[in-house]
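Example record for the data management plan.
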Amino acid sequence: GPLFTPPSMAVAGGNRGTLTGQGTIQPNTAVDGDALNFSGSGNKLILENGFSVTNNVVAHSGDTLALGGDTATTGNGSFDATVIGASEQYRGFGSFQKIGTSTCTLAGANAGAGPWMVQAGELAVTGSVGATSVATGATWAGTGTGASRANSSGTVAPGSIATPYGALAVSGNATLATGSTLASRT
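Corresponding structural encoding:
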C-alpha cells in the first residue's frame, strides 16, 4: 500500500475527508508529530486489515473511526480498543463503525470506546467496549462485554468458533428490535 510521510497531515472537514486502505501512515521520522490531525468535522478514517499507523491520530467529536475491509481483498483483522482515548493513539473520535464484509476482532478493555455501529460484516468483541448497535445483515459476536445494545436489527452471536458456548455480555440494557437474530456458534 501507499506510504504517507508528512510530519502532520490536515484533512479538510465538512464530510470531505476520507482516508482508506491498507497502507502505512507515519510522520516524517526526522520530525516528531502526529500521523494525522483532522481539521473540521465529519471526517472518517477507515482502517482495513494490514494497516499501520505510527504516532497519534487526532480527530474531533464529529469524526468517525471505522474498521473495515472486504474479506476477499483484505482478509479479517483485529484492533486493540485500548489505543482509543484522550491520551491514547486514536484521540477525539466521536463515533466508531465496523464496515465491509470482513470480521474484525476488537480486543482490550475500553468501555469509553463507543458508541459502535456494526454496519456490515462482523465485530467480534473479546474485551469490553461502549454501547453497540447492529444493522440488518451485520453481526456482533464474541466473548466480551458491551456497555449496552439498543435499537439493533442485526445478529447477535455469543461465543466464537473456539469457544462456541461463550457468553457475550451486556453491562447495561439490551434491546433486540423486530427482525433481529440471536445466533448460536455451534
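Summary line stored alongside the record: The radius of gyration is 16 Å.
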